[in-house]
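*** Residues and shapes ***
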Amino acid sequence: MEKYKVLWIDDESHRIEYLFKNLERNRFEFYKVRNEKEALQEMDNLDSYDLVILDIILPEGKDYTEQEIKNGAYKHRDYIGLDVLEVLKQRNQKKIPIIILTIVRETGIVRTLKKMAKDPQYSIYKIFTKGILENKEVAYCIYSALKIKAK
C-alpha cells in the first residue's frame, strides 16, 4: 500500500493528533514543522511531499513548548503563513495540493486567501476558516486532494 507523505506546517500539534484519529495511520506519514523558519528550511524537500497543510498564523522561528503555545506566550507576526504560501507558490513545481487550515476569520484575509485559491500557481485545494473543524470533513478533504479512497 502506498504511503502518502504530508508536510504539516502548524504550531499547534494537538490539531494533527486530533485529526490523525480519523485517518488510516498506515497510509500517511506526517512531517510536522512548527514555525516559519522550519517551514522555509523544508522547502528544499518540497518535491518529496504529496500534500501540504498550512496554518496562516505561525511564530517566526523560536520553537515554543506546547504549554507556551496554550498560554499565548509566543510572539508572532500576524498571518506569517501567507509569506510561507508565497514561497510555496515559487517552489511548488509538482503542483502539490495545499490545504489551508486556520481559524482566521478576518474578512480581508479570507478574501485574499480565496483570491489566491483561484490562481492555479498556488495549488490551493481547500481553505478551512472555521474555529472548530469537523475532523471527518478535513480527513475527507485530505483523501480527496490526494485522489485516494478511504477504506
